[in-house]
Structures
1.
Amino acid sequence: MSTSGTKVVLPPAPGLLLHPVFDVGATVMSLGFRVEQEQENRLVSKPVYVVSDGRVIKAYGENEERGIAGQPLRYRDGGPLPVLDAQWPREDFVAFMADPRCPNGSVLYESLAGKLRTHVEFDDYGKYVIVACWIVLTYVYPLFAAVPFLHVIGPKGTGKTQLLEVLEQLVRNAHRASITRALTGDMTEYQRPTFITDQVDHLPGDLTDTLAASYRQGARRSVTNTDNRKEPLTFETFGPKALAGTEALPVDLRDRAIVITTVPAHGVLGPVEPRDPECDQLRGNCYAWTLCSFWNLPPLVETMRRTSGSPLLRGVWPGLDSYVGRQHEIWLPMEVMMEALRVPDADRQAARDYYGRSQTATRAEIREDYADLLLVLLRLAGHNATLEITSTRLLEELPDDEDEKDRALWTVLRVGVALKALNVLKENQRTTERHKRRYVIDGDAVRSLVERYGLATK
C-alpha cells in the first residue's frame, strides 16, 4: 500500500511549563512569592521563585534565568503571587535558603497534631491524625490523582469555626470565602489556593457539580469567552477544600469527602490568635519539609497503588485493603502522607479505624421506612428535575403501616424529618390549611439515592 503527500514535521513538544504560584511534580517543585519592601516611601513588591529537585534548592529573582539541575524552567501565566510574609516568616525563609534543612516528618506531624489539640477537641484521636496529614497534603496535592475534601460537620457551638480558623493558618495558601462556581474556577486557575468555606448546607446544584468533579486531577470548567465566543475559557478546578456545615453534603459530593464530626468541648479551648506565631512557624516548616521531601512521594504513591490492587499483596498496606473505587482513591493520599510523615503505628491505626467507621456508616443499609419513602418519590418524580407535592398527597401514597408492626405510622412531622435526613428537600412551605405542607423534592437527589442503595433492584 503506497501513500503520498507532504511530509509533516512537527516542532518539538513544549518543555516543562510550571504554574507560577505553586507546582510540584515527580522531579521538580516550584513556589512563587511576592516580597514586599519599602522603596522611596512606598511599598513595592518583587517576585521570588523557589525551585527544588529535592536535593538542590535555589531561589531566583524577577529577571534571572531559572533552572534546576541543568533543566531550564518556564512559567505560564498566573495570578498575583502570595505575599511571602503571609506564608513563610521572612527570617525563617532566609535561614532556610542559606542552609536548606527541615524537621523530619514525624516531628512536623507531632507539631501539627499538637497545635490542633490546643484549639480543637475531637472525640476520636483518629481525627487529629487525619487533619494533621491533610494539612501537609495541601502542600503537595498535585502529586495525586485525587485529593479528599474535609467535611467538618456538627451542630452549632461544637467548634467547627474554630477548627476552620486553625486550618486557615496552617494549610498552604488558604483562601477563606463563600464558594461560587466562578470563584472556584478563577481562583484555582490563577492562584491554586486551599479553599476553606463555612456554612455549606445549601449549595446550589451547579456548584455541587463543579465541586464534585474538582476532587480529581484534571477537573476543569468552561465559561463563555465574551471576546471570542468560538473559543470558551477553560479553568482548572482541582484542589483541596475544607467545607463546614451542620448537615450532610449532597449525595454526589459526600463520597468525595472525609467527614470530621465535631462535638461540644468538655472545657474551654482558646481560639487561635490572628497571625499566630506558632502557626507561622509551622507553615514555614511545611514548606521546608515539602521542598526537601516531595520527590519521595511519587514512588510511594505508585507502590501503594500497585500493591493494594493485587490480591497476592494484601496486607502490605492494610489501610487500603478494604477499599475499592472512590473510597480507595480518596484514602490513598492519607496513607501516603502517614507513611511519608512517619506517623506512629498507633496513630495510623486510629485514623484507619475512624475512617472505616465513617465509611461503614455511609455504606450502611438504608432504613426500611426511608426506603419506602424514596421509592414513592422515585415513582412520582419519574425523570423530572423536581417534584412538587403536598404532605397530604405524599401520606396517601406511602405504604399503609397498619400491617407492619415494626414500622411507625407516617405523620407530617415524620415525613419532614425523613426528607431532611435524606437531603432531597429543596423547599418546605406551609400551606393555608393547618398541618399541611408543600414540598419541592430534588428529583436528581432521589434518583441518586435509589441507585446508591440499590433500591431499584429490590
Note: The chain has three domains: 17-83, 105-363, 368-457.
2.
Amino acid sequence: MVLGREPRINPVPLLELRPTQITVGKREVDAKRIAWRKHPEKEKSDFLGRHLIPVVCGPRERYYIIDHHHLALALHREGVREVAITVVADVRQLPRDAFWIYLDNRGWLHPFDAEGKRRSYAHLPRRITDLVDDPYRSLAGELRLRGGFSKDTTPFSEFLWADFLRRRIGRRLVARHFARALTRAMKLAKGEDAGYLPGWCGRLER
C-alpha cells in the first residue's frame, strides 16, 4: 500500500473516475458550472492545475474520487474531458470487498441515497454522470455559503447537515420554494439541536 499525494501530470479522462458517493446537490453543480464559464479561456488550464482531483487507486487500477465530485461533474457538463489527479492512496492490491471496507473506515465513502438511506456498495455509481441529485445536499451547500455553518474538515460534513435538514424540512418546500426552505434552514442551523454538527456556529440569538 502506498500513501501520500502523488500528482499525475498526465490528464485522466473524467469518465474513468469512479465516484465514492451516490448523490450530489444539483444547485451546487450548476453554480460551479457558472463559475467555470466566468474564467477567461487562458486561465482555465491554470484553474485545473490548481484543483487536482484527489483519488484512491483501487482494484484493476481504477481511480476512485474521494472529493470534488461536484466540480468533476460540473467540468464534465461544461465539456471538459480530462483532468489532473492526485493519488492519495494506492491500494490496488486489495480484493474488492476489502477495498470498500478500507474506504469506508477512512471516511472516504458515503453510500447514502437521495432519501438519506445507506445502501450497499453495489449501489455506488460507476461514472460521475450517474450521480443522483439530492435537493437537501443543495440546501446544505447554500446554507454554508450564507454563513449557516462553517466549512469543516469532517468528511462529508455537508451531507451530515443535509440529513439534519431532511428530517426537519419538507421535500416539497425545498423543491418548490427553495428560498423559504433556506430561511427555515438558517433558523434551524442556529438552534441547539444542530449543536452536534460539524461547523456549527452557535446558538440562535433571541
Note: The mean pLDDT is 93.
3.
Amino acid sequence: MAALFAFLHHLAAFTLVASLAVEMVVIGGELTLEAARKLRLADLAYGISAGFLLIVGLARVFHFEKGATYYFHTWTFIAKLALFVTIGLVSIIPTVEFLSWRRSVALGKPPAVSATKVRMLRSIIHLELAGVVLILLFAAMMAKGIGLM
C-alpha cells in the first residue's frame, strides 16, 4: 500500500509541474481565445493535482513511511510543506484572473488583459515553478535524512 501511495504522490507532483509548465509556455505567447482556454484548463489541472498531492502526501506522513513524529521533527519537511502552502496561496492570484475570463471565453472572445497584468501573471507562474524546484531540493534532502532536529 505504501508503494501505491508513493506512486500517486509522484504522479500528482509530475502533473502539477506539467500544468505549471503549460501555463508558463502559454502565458508567454499571445493571449488568444485558444490560449485563454488552455490556461483555464491547465490551471484546473494544477489545482486538482495540488489538492491530490497534499491529501496523498499527508496520508503518507500520517499512515505510511516514517510517521508524523519523524517528519515534523525535520526542518526540510517543514520547509517543504510551508513552501507548498505558500505557493498554493500565491497561485490564487492567477486562478482568480483565469476564472474572471469565463464570460469572454464563453462568448468566444479572448479576454481583455493589459500587458502589465500578463507580465505579473507570468512572473507569478515563474515564482511558482522556482518554488517547486526548491520543494524538490528539500524532498531530496529529506530523503537523505538531512534536517533532523
Note: Residues 36 and 110 are 7 Å apart (CA to CA).
4.
Amino acid sequence: MIGKASGCHFLTCGAAEGPTRPNALDGALLQAGVGNVNLVRISSVVPPGSRFVEPAPLAAGTIVPAAYATITSELPGEVISAGVAVAYPRDESLPALIMEYSAAGHKEDIEAIVRRMAQESLARRDQAVDDIRSIAVQHKVKTLGTAFAAVVLGDGN
C-alpha cells in the first residue's frame, strides 16, 4: 500500500510576545517545544495505528509533519487562543481526524469548538467516536502576541 504508516503523535501548544509577528510566532513555537524543527503543515489525518505519546524532544533541524492552529494579535488586552483536537474512531483500523481552530476568545471556548469540529469530522464519515483528545492555549496580548497549538506526527522511533 502506498503511504502506509503508523508512528506516533502528540499534542502541544505555546504562546508568546514578540517585537514582530515572526518573533512572536517563534517564541510560541519554542514554548511548544517545536521551535528548532522545520514544521511541514499537514491537513487532518492521523494514520491508523499511530500511538498517542507525551510530547518528546525533537532533533534540531528535523522535518516534522504537524497540523496546527495559530493566531497573532497586536491589540493590547485582547485574549487570543489556539486549539487542536483529534477524534479517534471506534474502529482502530481507520484514521483519526484532526481539527484546528484559533480566534479571539478564551481557551475553554476555543477547545470546545475544536472538539465539536473533530467529532463532526468523524460523523461525516459515518464513524463512531471512541475518544477525543484536545489541547488549547490562550494569551492576553501585551503589545504583539501569538498563540499556537499543534498535533505533531512522528515516526515512532
Note: The helical segments are 21-32, 107-123.
